[in-house]
């Protein structure tokens, strides 16, 4: 329909619809500051989690892991929250290093994914280990805050060599 057929009432109605649509879009989009805050919060939580694993601190790990948490390793083995906490408590595995580098955090609304290169060094049942692997950790924002819900770890990198992205 040519613009000459729009009445002033019709134009005003369309203007209101466009304005309301733009307002809805603006309100639904997180601000850049909120996005940065979420990235920082998730990054800090992931650092805290890795440090808790290194210390064998099952209590701190329990606060970060969601109750339905699952970790899948590069071999296909899965671990639940209760299995990871039991492993932290039994002291069979002792970490000298559980340090992540090359960490990237991406946030989409109430979901965040952390990808990092992890260096693990220590002993398990008296046998030493020293290797690096890539991991992706998924966090979800609940009413109580961010929780670690799913982890996936690669196989150890060949030769344990540091390999960046």
From TrEMBL:
Going by the entry's taxonomy, the superkingdom of the source organism is recorded as Bacteria
Q: Which UniProt keywords apply?
A: Signal
Q: Which one Pfam family would you cite for this protein?
A: DUF4440
Query: Which Gene3D superfamilies does its entry note?
Result: 3.10.450.50
> Does the record's keyword annotation contain Signal?
yes
Domain DUF4440 positions: 42-147
- Signal peptide range equals 1-33
Q: What is this protein called?
A: Nuclear transport factor 2 family protein
- Look up and give the organism this protein is from: Paucibacter sediminis
């Amino acid at each position: 329909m040519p613009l000459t057929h729009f009445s002033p009432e019709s134009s005003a109605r369309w203007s209101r619809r466009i304005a309301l649509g733009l307002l809805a879009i603006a309100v639904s989009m997180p601000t850049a500051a909120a996005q940065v805050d979420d990235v920082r919060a998730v990054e800090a939580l992931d650092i805290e989690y890795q440090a808790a694993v290194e210390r064998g601190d099952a209590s701190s790990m329990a606060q970060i892991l969601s109750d339905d948490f699952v970790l899948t390793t590069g071999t296909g083995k899965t671990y639940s929250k209760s299995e990871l906490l039991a492993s932290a408590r039994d002291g069979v595995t002792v970490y000298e290093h559980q340090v992540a580098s090359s960490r990237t955090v991406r946030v989409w609304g109430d979901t965040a994914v952390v990808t990092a290169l992890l260096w693990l060094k220590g002993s398990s049942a008296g046998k030493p280990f020293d290797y690096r692997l890539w991991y992706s950790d998924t966090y979800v924002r609940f009413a109580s805050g961010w929780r670690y819900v799913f982890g996936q770890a690669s196989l150890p990198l060949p030769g344990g060599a540091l390999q960046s992205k």
